[in-house]
Write a structure and sequence with these properties.
The chain is mostly helical. The protein has a single domain, classed as Zincin-like, CATH 3.30.2010. Helices cover about 40% and strands about 5% of the residues. The protein has a 3-stranded mixed β-sheet with strand order 1-3-2, covered by helices on one side. Strand 2 and strand 3 form a beta hairpin. Bound molecules: zinc ion (ZN). The site of zinc ion (ZN) has 4 residues, from helix 4.
Length: about 160
Amino acid sequence: MLVRRSRKQRTAVPASFCEYVATDDFVISRRPTYIDRSRNLLRTDIGDHAFIPDSIQRLLDAGLLTPEDIRNSWFSWTRRDNLRRLGFCSTLFRVVGISSALDSPEVPDSIRDYVVYHECLHLRQGYRPGGRIHDAEFRRWERSYPGWKECENALRTLHRRTGS
Ligand SMILES: [Zn+2]
């Protein structure tokens, strides 16, 4: 039987469940199945042009990310070069996919890094069932990226290139 949950109950997942799924053991044991089932992950962070670990290293060096933010996380390029969905993050399995549209010499490091940064901020938030993900705190973090506004504009231009 389906019970319609009210807005207030939206986040009513037992705390013990959230604690369990946030453990390294849970993530490490269940993640391979998630990755196997995902048809859009290339299963490599080494692109034809760009390496996702290079972006992460620059973000760490700049002090924008900490090693704790990206602990026990798994990164991959996507199979599809989607220009509308440039990145995604499963906070449950700590998996980040970056659109292979960004694996191009035409895309500057700063733009690629900004998308990787955005997804890593979701890793920092962790698994929050029912919670608002792009909340004020998230936007504050995002805007600590130098030149975030220019990056947003550049990404909007990329979106437009899809012609839709
Ligand atoms: Zn997001």
